Amino acid sequence: MVSEAPPFWWTKADWRAWALSPFSFLYGRIAGYRMTHARRASVPVPVICIGNFTVGGAGKTPTALTIARAAKAKGLRPGFLSRGYGGSLDVTVVVDPAHHRAVAVGDEPLLLAREAMTVVSRRRVEGAERLVREGADLIIMDDGFQSARLAIDYALLVIDTTRGLGNGHTVPGGPVRAPISVQMRYASALLKVGKGNAADAIVRMAARAAKPYFTASLKVCGENDLAGRKVLAFAGIADPGKFFRTVESLGAEIAIGRSFGDHEHLSDDEMADLLSTAERDDLLIVTTSKDFVRLAGHHGKAEELVAKCRVIEVEMAFEDPQAPGLIIDRATEACRERRLRRSRKSG
Question: What's the rounded Cα separation, in Å, for the pair 254 and 284?
Fold first, then answer.
């Protein structure tokens, strides 16, 4: 499945957003009701959810990876829980990056599985229970904040400071997943990513609700030699523009930029076009880690493209390096209180 947010979601609300407002109102009421009234299953380990207010990418996966590294530094065994968006498997499975391909489990789980045990499940409670059985003592949910299926001990909502909340309307008139007031009620903290000002209003709202916020930025991993290089950059992620800005920040000149749908698996014709265009114009091909893992493990044009791609790896760098550890500590405390309340009720 490919998720492509309409461009008008990310600009000032226009006639399309307002024309869809009755449907947005209905969607928001249903989503808000579910978040408020759903019965949430409980597991015996801390659960940290990395979510966002809107549809589309804001940096959840790099954030989840950073939290996992901090957990391992504390001696914990974290496990990722993912719905496997973009994958075809409809069973609960522990991801094996040496065996599974993105077409089966999704691209994000393959990236997560490089760092820690990862379970893909359409049924989040079943997936969480599987992680516990496999020995995880901390669960990090990549997305799933609005699903309201699992008791969450710490919900960190990531917001991009360039895109913010887009036009501010709820799906389908805009990218917001549920009424902001309801989402804020269940959020533990916000994570501002970048140096823009599009998130300022939501941060002020969080402050009024006594919700803390952290700041972070996406940093390129490792050394690079792209300065002065002419490149063909392609990306099939929620916000390709963010990737293109990252490439330009490294000093590269994007001679050609190609955007595809989020989680999109390229056709042979599309891959052949990328290869022939880069060869004709003598361009270096650069892409994201998510696009790369979608290509990996295939033959033909995909194998050829993998061989010629330069992957730009990024990581989430918190302004306060102690913040990930603090988040884990707060989740652990909340889990202890949750289990105590549960034992009192059952007793």
Answer: 10
Query: In what side-by-side order are the strands of the sheet with 138-142?
Result: 93-94, 117-120, 78-82, 138-142, 47-51, 154-160, 189-193, 213-220, 314-318
- Helix, strand or coil for residue 54? strand
Answer yes or no: pTM beyond 0.85: yes
User: Contact at 8 Å (CB) between 291 and 261?
Assistant: no
pLDDT < 50 stretches in the chain: 1-3
Give the C-alpha distances (Å, rounded to integers) separating 222 from 14, 139, 313, 319: 42, 28, 8, 19
> What pLDDT does residue 347 have?
64
The values of phi and psi at residue 316, to 5°, are -90, 120
The residue type found at 37 is: H
Distance CA 129, CA 144 (A): 16
Distance between CA atoms of 109 and 102, rounded to whole angstroms?
8
Give residue for tokens 């609960």: 92
Instruction: Tally Cβ neighbours within 10 Å of residue 255.
Output: 16
pLDDT in tens, 81-111: 999 888 888 999 999 998 999 999 999 999 9
Contact 279, 187 (CB under 8 A): no
- On the 0-12 / 13-18 / 19+ scale of CB atoms within 10 A, 205 is middle
Express each pLDDT in 104-121 by its tens digit. 999 999 999 999 999 999
Q: Is residue 286 a contact partner of residue 232, using CB atoms and an 8 Å limit?
A: yes
Report the DSSP pairing between strands 284-288 and 314-318. Answer: unpaired
Whether a cis peptide bond, with omega within 30° of 0, leads into 321 is no
What gap in Å lies between CA 103 and CA 86, rounded to an integer? 7
